[in-house]
Design brief:
The protein has about 500 residues and is α/β, with parallel strands linked by helices. It has 17 helices and 15 strands. The protein has three domains: about 70 residues; about 150 residues, 2-Layer Sandwich (Alpha-Beta Plaits), CATH 3.30.70; about 240 residues, EAL domain (TIM Barrel). The strands form two sheets. It has an eight-stranded mixed beta barrel, surrounded by five helices. The protein binds ligand C2E and calcium ion (2 copies). One calcium ion binds next to loops.
Amino acid sequence: MKRSSIHAISIFLLLFLIGSSLIFLQGTSQLNKGSSYLPIILAALFLASTITVIYVIVTKNYHNKALNKVAYLDSVTGTGNYNKFKIDAQALLKNNKTREYAIVYLDISKFSYINDTFGYSAGDIILAQVAKEMELEMKESECSARISADNFVCLVEYESENSLLQRCEQFHHQCDQQLSQINSQFKIQFACSIYKVSPGETDIPSMVGKAEIAYKTIGDIHKASAVFYDDRIQNEYLQKKKLESAMSSSLDNNDFLVYLQPKIDLASKEIVGTEALSRWQHPTEGLIMPDQFISLFESNGFILELDFYIYEKVCQLLRKWLDAGEAVMPISVNVSKAHLANQQFGSQLKALIEQYRISPNLLELELTESILFHDVEAAVSMILDLKNLGFSILIDDFGSGYSSLNLLKDLTVDVLKLDKEFFRKDGMMEKDKIIVDGIIRIAKDLNLKILSEGVETQDQVDFLIEAGCHYVQGYFFAKPMPVEVFEALVGYQ
Ligand code: C2E
Ligand code: CA
Ligand code: CA
């Protein structure tokens, strides 16, 4: 029933009640004079209308409560939802003008893993427990809510960055304890971002939005589990949005360029290959280096398109050199870990080289070492698939992560590319030398070729010759360069 009709009925009944009471009073005086049954009827009506009015009021309250429940309660956790949070937070800010506040945005890391491992109902139990703990954690002048999937938000009093971080940590500990009582395997990690509310600020969605912006930088930019929103984050976010808004049209306009960095054979000192590295000739920002867009494209999925665009440009280049009758050397391309999920990757690449009539041994594939640890099974099967198709495989950035020489014996790779971190300009550390020497020896025993990247000095070159490294790449010999410059360097027409 609509609220307005409930009001109308109640007013009607109220009037009826007053009216009948008056008549009753008049009737009793007449009854005293012994005249009729009218007063008894009126008394009954009076009673009925009183009961009806009470009924209407009670139902109205019930309906209001039900409506409030739908509007302000989160059905999964049974605690207040974002709508309620917005109202409560605004009221708190209004009533506590002298107090300093912060918005904390909290995400349960890898929550999909929890759902996948323990099931959705276990996921719901965890969400409800976190929400409950959060509600208990709130002081009278604070409030909280779950705002979406595994994301929570709270408005808390602010004393200092440190004390707030400590409180977040304490809260995590508290949740972990409570969850382990439900199931000892329920372990969660939080990632949280914090926005310090400015004096007089009242727009809750905008504040939560800023905390969310900071949150989005946790993984790809800051690699931390807690981040405070500041101007730098705002700028990074705007820059990211700017790049994202231009990426597709830039691809259509051929604004992504292939740069080539030569690979040198240490025995002959000849250029024996080259690596294709992308550059973005942005319409307004100038030439942008890959470290500013590759991880962004990996997080938004655009890398899948960019990589194939680069592969096609490389195939076109190889075809051009072949048609010109040059003694063509292989070009290596970088394969993002994002391709691991694509089981058609190998066949798509094969279709591409066939389109340009390129032999697979001219296109080498550089897979970063981190791919192996991202999803070992998928990586091993992808590498096997690519090898069967005839491509050469190179493990890039070797030694930068949890290198597993042991894993190498099961991988059908051709070249190990030692990470440039081993070769620092100010001279290699003694320990780096021992490690590089050891890796080269083992890799040779496994019949792998070694390429060292980031080689910048004569000393490094001498050391690598001594250690038995096969190829080098680095500023000492050549920086990545535009295709025309490379063609001139190697004497292609
Ligand atoms: P990477 O594949 O490890 O490439 C080597 C990086 O080291 C290149 O940076 C190169 O310019 C730089 N470098 C080469 N020699 C030296 C040296 O002597 N000293 C120093 N300090 N640096 C050197 P760049 O071109 O900025 O590329 C950065 C990373 O971006 C690449 O690292 C690669 O992982 C990624 N990347 C570049 N283009 C693509 C692409 O088309 N697709 C994918 N998926 N990743 C790409
Ligand atoms: Ca590479
Ligand atoms: Ca590398």
